[in-house]
Amino acid sequence: MKSLKLVSLLFFFTVFVACHSASNGQTPKAVKISFEQKYPNENDPDWREDKNGNYESHFKKDGIHYRADFSPKGYWIETEQSIKKKDLPQTILKILKSDYEDVKIVEIEKVDHFQKGVFYDVEIKKDGKKRDLEFSENGQLLNQ
Q1: Which of 138, 25, 35, 143 is nearest to 79 (CA)?
Q2: CA–CA separation, 110 and 121 (whole Å)
Q3: pLDDT 10s per residue in the chain (144 long)?
Q4: DSSP class of residue 141?
Q5: How far apart are CA 30 and CA 37, in angstroms?
Q6: Where are the beta strands (DSSP E) in 16-139?
């Protein structure tokens, strides 16, 4: 009797996991097609679904790591690339030095966004609070 309960429990667990994986683990075909059109020579991205239901492709191009985001219908949203502080445009480096010298820089990304174009996202931390600063290439702060 115990083995029958155990087998039944394992059966239902297996079915649950299989159904759950099938519904949540698939990247829509429209997303894959859009990715292939935008990045024709990249054929093996790692896909993840983010908290907003969009799909993130993680891939390397010329040894550099990228993350490109797509809507479930396949619309490209943005592509991000982590960069080092020294790789920021000089105008942004000057602004960070003069206006944000007392903050810790957590992360820096170069972003190409479907609406905003290219900008730099500098994540800072001050007094335990994180905040993103978005700069245009010429140093204009985009988010106030």
Answers
A1: 35
A2: 6
A3: 555 454 344 444 443 443 333 345 699 999 999 999 999 988 789 999 999 999 999 999 888 899 999 999 999 999 999 999 999 999 999 999 999 999 999 999 999 999 999 999 999 999 999 999 999 999 999 986
A4: B
A5: 11
A6: 46-49, 55-61, 64-70, 76-82, 104-113, 117-126, 129-136
In this prediction the pTM is 0.78
Token match 């097609």: residue?
A: 33
* Length in residues, the chain: 144
Q: Give the pair of three-digit tokens for residue 81.
A: 């690339």
Residue 38 structure tokens: 């935008």
Q: How many CB atoms lie within 10 A of CB 40?
A: 8
